[in-house]
Amino acid sequence: MQLSQILFAIFGTLTLAGAITATVMRRNIFYTSLALAISCLGVGGLLALLEAWAIAALQLIVFVGGIAALMRFAPPPLKEMTRPGELGFGQQWRVTAVIAVVLCGVLAGTAISHNWSAPPANPAPARLSGFILPLVAAVVMLLVALVGAVKIVRRQ
Amino acid sequence: MTAVPLWWYLALAAALFCIGLYAALSRRNMITMLMGIVMMLNAVIVNLAAFWRYSETVAISGQAFALFVYSIAVAELAVGLALSVRLWRACTTASPGDLDSLKG
Description:
heterodimer; A: mainly alpha; 6 helices; B: mainly alpha
């Protein structure tokens, strides 16, 4: 087994184990968000393995450092909303599980059955000069969303 | 790098997406639903990066698309968390299933 395959196995295990733990855990939002952070860390490792360095760094900054940290060190309203009694499953969880398993089988089966080509040896450096306008639009949208979120949560 | 076939990444992303889908649909709490959505977005990003790496990498659109996914994820989570807090203050519930005042 080659080093890249071993690394893929490690990061893949981190990703899926963290995701499954975050999904089924009902005890405490702290442990659930910790599991989510571990899953996001595994995804960051996979992105680094794919040599997509920019989005691997973004993954660590945005998801691990930002969102999972927010949920771990939750402000009082979030702590109240995520008491152990509030973290249960709905009544349709069996049907949802069947749908998720079937969908996973269909997607994975399609991916496995196709004959994919080999990757190029060295990836080209990332140059986003053709995407300036969409990126600026995304930044403006993000600013509007964050200002709106502050306005929504602010007490009158 | 070339020792890992593309379908490994696609199968892992499919599994991660379906775990996130299960979390988003089966959990009663809005915070854990948002966590499920984060998992689904992570799966999408892995797919985008894998297809970028395994195709002609001069075309950077896979990574650019992933950047847009990050900005949308942050915006959606910020608004979702703000709405959750506001709903908790108004109705003392974090479960969307309890919000049925418009039900006929």
